[in-house]
Design brief:
With 133 residues, this protein is an alpha+beta fold. It has a single domain, classed as Nucleoside Triphosphate Pyrophosphohydrolase, CATH 3.90.79.10. Helices cover 22% and strands 33% of the residues. It has helices spanning 43-55, 108-113, 118-127, and strands spanning 2-8, 15-19, 30-31, 34-36, 58-60, 68-73, 79-88, 90-92, 102-106. The longest helix is centred in the middle third of the chain and has 13 residues, at 43-55.
Amino acid sequence: MLVVAGALRRSDGLWLMHRRPEGKQHGGLWEFPGGKVEAAEKPPEALIRELREELGITIVIDTPEPVAKAKETSPSGQIRIVIQLYTSRDWLGEPQALEGGQINWFEPAEIKKLPKPPLDVELAEQLFADLPR
């Protein structure tokens, strides 16, 4: 399964994270918002759609290539999930948690400390690898 996620950065250097609703898989953990790529979609198109549905915004993706990738494999080595992370510094609208949970803006150092699903831990490490600790 291919999944896309967005790392939204405000002009003040803060990044948006979404806290998953309780009762869902990874409930209460923080993640980069996004979702599944549908059969006829390209990943950037899926991200634009997902963030419109989840946050009520229309984004402009910074680059057509993901800035980070993470994958989950089964015990037999089969790939279950691949997440591609894209960045955006430009969007229309004010982000809102339209599908439940909560959103908030954080500094990179704060994001590194947030409780996150394992694949989002990997994405954050890659995204912020070049930033001072």
